[in-house]
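Hey, sorry to bother you again with one of my protein questions. A protein chain has come my way and I'm curious about its shape. I'm sending you its amino acid sequence along with the backbone structure tokens. I owe you a coffee for this, so here goes:
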Amino acid sequence: FNNNFDFKNIKPGHIAEGTDYVISQADFIKNEIIQISGTERTYENTLVRIDDIYSVIESVWSPGYLMGSVHTSEEIRNEGLEASKKIENYITKLSLNEDLYNAVVAYVTTAEAKSLKGFRKKYLDDLLLDYKRIGFTLSKDEREKVKTVLDVLTDLGLEFDKNIRAAQDTLFLDPKDLAGLPDNYKKERLQNNGKYSIDMTYPSYVPFMDQAESDEAREALRFKFNNRARAENIGVLNDILRNRMKLVKLLGYNSYAEYRTEDRMARNPKNVWDFENDLKQQLREKAENDVAEMLTIKSVRLGKNTKTIHPWEAGFYENQVKLKKYNLDREEVRQYFEFNNVTEGLFTIYQQLFNVRFEKVQNPSVWHEDVQMFSIYDKTSGALIGNFYLDMFPRANKYGHAAAFSVIMGKMTENGYQKPATALVCNFPKPTDFQPSLLTHENVETYFHEFGHLVHGVLTTSQLISYAGTSVARDFVEAPSQMLENWVWQKESLSLFAKHYETGEVIPEELLDRMIAAKNINSGTKALQQIFYGIYDFTLNDGFDPDGNKSTTDLIKELKNEITFYPYQEGTHQQASFGHLNGYGAAYYGYKWSEVYAQDMFSVFEANGILNPDIGLKYRRIILEKGGTVDPYELVKEFLGREPNSEAFLRSMGI
């Protein structure tokens, strides 16, 4: 109990064996629950034991899924993903187990069940809603059909993700095509034949789109980037949409969007449509002004009047506005964000705010030599709270984005509290012989954001694994981490870690002023881009027919042209590599939705001091520790001391 995983010595076969073992353990607990007679049912022997099943499974599922995403051995990666598939199918089977359902229903009739309060009552209500949502109010035959569709959806989702991860493509360019890019970028990508290879990873793609002067090269790179997994995933996406429609028809919902919002903060599709359409209107004027600024620069650059910014020009001209208007050079800013300094500053801020202490673990058992491990202690009591891992640099076949992966989730057991652990997986520029790891300001923001998920996971005090850490309503899960992005925009916090990597000079006040002023450059167009993603995803799941006369590509073209100010790039199929269409089906709206709550919560820090440990501790106690034990709206209200609103959000966008 509470031993760390021996990741270093993981061998082929280990994850598969562990998976079989935990499934047999879960079956054992399940049978114990089923055998209790109706009158003897209690919260402890029925509901807590159901939570125990998930705890046992989680002990292999989380680390196995992590290994499937980061391990250097293809065999172990595949085994990790196969194990995830097996476990997800098992969980589907478990959730459809009639005897377990009958056990919960039998418990509902007891006097104890009727008197439950707080998270215990919420857990019972949520279990019953979950059962309703997978068809337990239906006949046996219909339920079998539901089970089949859920299995198919699980497999299709894994296939969709796997195809995106496997999609490797490279654009080979001549030296002239790399004008505008820094020397270190070029050096790392120079081939023996004098050409440059630009791959599709973010550290390669993003700087190129922002800085390369060649419109043709950017257009070609964006074309490749937005056709990743095209051949495989267009069909898979259609299959996913067909099966979602099949599922909700069986369950009696009007659409997958209605089904998905029912157990979230949003509650129903109407609230989401109102939210998206309202923001779309509020942001329009700001976005128009953003585009006008870019067009002015483009017209001067081309020596003729122009009315359009193409999507492959957006990043470049946004960067040009920063350079011209605020003389803000991405490369100049990077000099002040050396990876180790940023890490140290982030640690200082998080430790101060949340009354914790991080301690590096010496010689940890990890899956790659780049990975570091830390323990988190409560500053007051000195007690160990949990652990975390940092896997921060790209390597072949590693998960390509930035995410916090759960390793162990918190839960109260008979042996005491199970200490949580989370792995932060990023793809920041790796230090080279030429220079240390210098992060862009966006990288720093990502780091603070993902670390927000990490502390949400590790600082949990939930008695139940079902509500531990980030196990909250899905349209709230981003809010606590989005709130923590604000510290990379405040002078008081930036002065702690933004130091020049060569001279150690703290970032100059005037550069900071320019950065903060430049923050809302394109805030309108960027937010509209997010609204476009949200509406595209929601439309696919609220009335769209994959077998109708409009394809998923037609829809992307129509909405991109209608909502954003950047016309659709002909021949691209962005949906094929848009992984969130799987995991976040009918839920992408949650990013912006949660941002509104995030900014509202940050307003409390603004009013009382952004490094104020009392407010930080209040945030830890009310928002982070509670996890999903209380409705998120109530938690936010308690933290704010009032009803939430969107004023702080619009203010943060410069509107």
Q: What stands out?
A: DSSP finds 27 helices and nine strands in the chain.
